[in-house]
Amino acid sequence: MARITLQNLAHSYLPHPAGEQDFALKELNHVWQDGSAYALLGASGCGKTTLLNIISGLLRPSQGRVLFNDRDVTDAATAERNIAQVFQFPVVYDTMTVRQNLAFPLQNRGRDAAYIKARVQEIARIIGMEAALDRRAQGLTADAKQKISLGRGMVREDVNAILFDEPLTVIDPHMKWELRTQLKRLHREFGHTMIYVTHDQTEALTFAQQVVVMHDGRVVQIGTPQELFERPAHRFVGYFIGSPGMNFLPAEIAGSSARLAGGATLSLSGHYAPATGAIGIRPEHLFLTDRGGLPVTIRRIEDVGRHRLIRAEFQGAPLNIVAPEGLPIDGLSHVGFDARRINVYVGDWRVAPQEKAA
């Protein structure tokens, strides 16, 4: 296992990048702590796989260094880094049986037959392939092959890190939940450093201790699932995390109040320097009322079982509200805010409240 340090790391696929806009991965500094589980989360094309491939050694960065513990591995080959990597699409040997595929990484490292047999049996149980151990991989379905690929990545106990590049894309939804649960159990049991790339917020938030959110080649926030939900550091995080994402309303901020379109004013729980920006609040932190708050127009109501999603508008701006199932909403035409749950943004970035002047 290893602590992975990224120093002044950046990458461009162009031979002579002219500026930051030419970099697929903007400069970053970060330490992946030994034994922690991380998720790299973001939309397609944001730089997640580029970063993972730099860590694994499949790609050399344009600038900066990669260190495993205190060893500089920037120019080291993938095999020298002692990692396991599981890719988005299955990497298996079709002519081998499931058992032989799972055993192959251990046989290459000279482990004894008894250990290999026990370890293969354990991994086969975790990925649900015990009944197929003696079947050739060639005739198996795509999701079965991906489970083999996942098992091959997990079979070694001595790796510095296990890297997952959207490994559950071809797995059926129920098995995704099962495998995520097993991955978390493996992490607790063996303490591998794990980095899991995904565009699926559910996968990221249920797997990782720390989630690294990327947008347009840049890391915009690193935090726990609760921190990402409650205090998004960037508007993209507020939009991307949650279903639906955070509501944003343009506002003039001054002191402890926000002036919205139409002259409406909301109280804030903190004190802020004067600025033109926006307030952000989660749909779960809004509530319908018959008086006070902001007047809204309800466009439609979506019943999603455990709650109802109210699609409303305020001064032409969309506003989503989550209402508990069974709560009467007829005649309610205003929305109330919990001031403690309001975040303030200037540009794309969250602004922390200031200490009031004495």
Automatic annotation (TrEMBL):
Domain ABC transporter: 4-241
GO molecular function terms noted in the UniProt entry: ABC-type ferric iron transporter activity; ATP binding; ATP hydrolysis activity
Record-level GO cellular component terms: ATP-binding cassette (ABC) transporter complex, substrate-binding subunit-containing
Entry-linked Pfam families: ABC_tran (PF00005), OB_MalK (PF17912)
SMART domains: AAA (SM00382)
Keyword ATP-binding found: yes
PROSITE patterns reported for this sequence: ABC_TRANSPORTER_2 (PS50893)
Keywords: ATP-binding, Cell membrane, Membrane, Nucleotide-binding, Transport
Superkingdom to which the source organism belongs: Bacteria
Family that this chain belongs to: Belongs to the ABC transporter superfamily.
Protein's name in the database: ATP-binding cassette domain-containing protein
